[in-house]
Amino acid sequence: MSAGELRGEPELVGRITTASNATFLATIDGVAVVYKPVAGERPLWDFPDGTLAAREVAAYAVSETLGWDLVPPTWLGEGPFGPGMLQRWQEPDDAAGSAVALVPADAIPEHGWCHVLDGVDEQGAPVALLHEDSPAMRRLALLDVVTNNADRKGGHVLESADGHRRGVDHGLTFHTEPHLRTILWGWVGEPLTDDEVAGVARVREALDGALGERLRTLLADDEVDACVRRCDRLLAEQRFPGPEGEMPAIPWPPI
């Protein structure tokens, strides 16, 4: 068992209706977990059917190797609707504030935030999409680059009052082609810090060892090979990349 993994079959508490795939709140021995059965995954044109649960576990494995506690403990297990992803539930901290914000276009703070894009709200008023400019959010953005996350929405960022940030919903990851779709574009072209370079180096080294072996049980070989190339590129350029490929740069809805 990996750290944080629980034994036993989850008992359903209710369905999380805002999720695009079948997602349930459940408990295992009184501990709250999220359960996403493979049978509830919607077919996608760009990802093989029935693979999203394994991709979530693979993203957790990369997070653990980075060493920054970016993804809650995640594993594969059995549930009432068959095999699927299980993840420890992270209770939202309402006192922590939001790390992603939609504000009036004339109310953009001067410090502490990155301005990602402009748009209009339902009433046609100009608005701006911002995200927090912090080491915690940079680390989450770097995880998305390494895993090629195609779905980093604002609602997939979990805030803690101590400033820590975690990410959830990593089913659309590890595509072989450039698929990075995220609201965390605030550092495009900026150099990585020494700590960030060291984190990527840990992943790259582990991909030739235990991490690579683990990922090859969860992903296709070419998907793991593509992750290796992304790490090599990050270590060579040591900068946050910009959008590339044919995919939209921002997921919809962004928040």
Tally of separate helices: 5
The Rg value, from CA coordinates, equals: 18 Å
> Quick one: overall form?
globular
Q: Which percent band covers the strand fraction? A: 15-25%
* Distance between the ends: 34 Å
Question: Helicity, in percent?
Answer: 25-40%
Structural category: alpha+beta
Instruction: Classify the oligomer.
Output: single chain
Could you describe the largest sheet, including whether it forms a barrel?
5 strands, antiparallel
Average pLDDT level: 93
Number of domains: 2
Counting DSSP E segments of at least 2 residues, the number of strands comes to 10
Name the helix and strand elements from N-terminus to C-terminus, one letter apiece: EEEHEEEEEHEEHHH
Q: What are the low-pLDDT stretches, counting only 5+ consecutive residues below 50?
A: none
The largest sheet has its strands arranged as: 1-2-3-5-4
